[in-house]
Every structure is written in structure tokens, then in C-alpha cells.
Amino acid sequence: PERAVAAMADQEPRSLEALNAIIARSEPLVPGATQAVLGEGPVGATLAFVGEQPGDQEDRQGRPFVGPAGQLLSRAMQEAGIDRSASYLTNAVKHFKFEERGKRRIHQKPTAGEVSHYRWWLDRELDFVGPRLVVALGATAVLALTGKAVPITRARGPFRFERFHNRFEGFITVHPSYLLRLPDEAKAEAYAAFVDDLCRAEALGR
Ligand code: URA
Fold first, then answer.
1. In angstroms, what is the span from residue 90 Cα to ligand 1's centroid?
2. Domain count for the chain
3. Which of 8, 102, 131, 154 lies at a C-alpha separation of 20 to 30 Å from 193?
4. CA separation for the pair 113, 130 (Å, rounded)
5. Can you give the CATH number for the domain in which 127 is found?
6. Domain range enclosing 97
7. pTM above 0.80, yes or no
8. Ligand 1 pocket, 39 CB below 6 A?
9. Quick check: helix, strand or coil at residue 125?
């Protein structure tokens, strides 16, 4: 019976800490990841950022947005006047999925099934953090937050997401890794548009 009680408590964590303990103990849906990468930032953060899934660096370090895309995000946040350490950063999917090519581990996009597997956690997480605005970075985050596949080019900008007990103002923008993949001649303009989006999100979250 003690075990059963513990299992039930596991089902309904009472704090972000308790939820994170469950996530940290969980096996990846697709085997391979070193560890679960938990969200980072204070409960009560005004802005929450939702990415796709941890990348190679995040998987090794156990922290979200520390690799190349994360560094670009940090720079853009700073330019938009957003304090990264006061914001909450997390991912739709908590484990890195990759394909091995020689020594490199190539990121693989999570399937819709994988995104829906992790949605329960994301919902609880955002409930505990209670941000004023949730910024969805890219299509996977939008899918996780709305349950719908929406093209970013059309949906970019403010949106409202409502699911279960979550009712948050949101803002949809591109994923920073998209900016890294653009041809050089398109990068500057796309990056400026991304910073603009973050400025708008910052103003909306005030
Ligand atoms: N890309 C993401 O979506 N999340 C991370 O944490 C890092 C890269």
C-alpha cells in the first residue's frame, strides 16, 4: 500500500520540484538520451519559453538552451531586454533524440506521438510556473501547446492557448535553430525579425 500511495503521489505532483523529480527519473521514450533535460527558471517567471527538445549539448550538460541555438536565443533575449535568468525555459520533449553519424549525434525531430507523450508534463510545468506569457519557439512547441499542427509563417504573433486548467496568453515565433540553418544572406533579416518578436513578447508579458 505504501508503494501504491507513492505511485499515486507521483501521478499528481504538488510542486514543480516534485514534477521535476518524476521527469528526471523517467526513461526516454526513444532510448539514447543521457538524461532528461528539465525546465530552468523561477516559479512565477513572467515569460516562459518553450522549445522543441534538448540538443546534443543540452543532453550532455543537462540544461536547456546551452548549445548553439540556445546561445543565439540568449543573445536575442538580451537584445530584446529580456533577462534570461528571470525567465523560464523549457522544451516540449524532455529527452534528446538523435541518429549517430560517425562521432556526431544528429538531432531528430520528435514525432507528433512523442510530443503528445510529453504534453502532460509540459502542462503541469506551466501550471506551476504560472507565466504571464508563453513564447512558443517553432512548430513543435506550438503543437505541444495547442495540439494542432500550425505553420509558423501563418501563426506568427500573439495567440491564446487553452487546455485543461491552462489558460495562457501566448506568442508564436520561429525556433532559433531555424535561424542557424538559413543561408548567410538571409540570416541578418530573419534574426532582426526574431528580436522584434521577442520585443513584442516582452511588452505583452509586462
Ligand atoms: N533546441 C531546443 O528546442 N531546445 C533546447 O533546449 C536546445 C535546442
1. 8
2. 1
3. 131
4. 26
5. 3.40.470.10
6. 2-205
7. yes
8. no
9. helix
Distances (CA, A) of 7 to 12, 95, 110, 122, 137: 9, 22, 28, 20, 33
pLDDT (tens, 9 = 90+) of the chain, 206 residues, equals: 555 555 555 568 999 999 999 999 999 999 999 999 999 999 999 999 999 999 999 999 999 999 999 999 999 999 999 999 999 999 999 999 999 999 999 999 999 999 999 999 999 999 999 999 999 999 999 999 999 999 999 999 999 988 766 778 999 999 999 999 999 999 999 999 999 999 999 999 99
Angle, vertex CA 122, rays to CA 38 and CA 70, nearest 5:
50
The single-letter code of the amino acid at 36 is: A
**Residue 26 C-beta-side C-alpha neighbours within 13 Å:** 20
DSSP codes joined into one string, 57-108:
HHHHHT-TT-SHHHHHHHHHHHHTT--GGGSEEEESS-S--EEEETTEEEE-
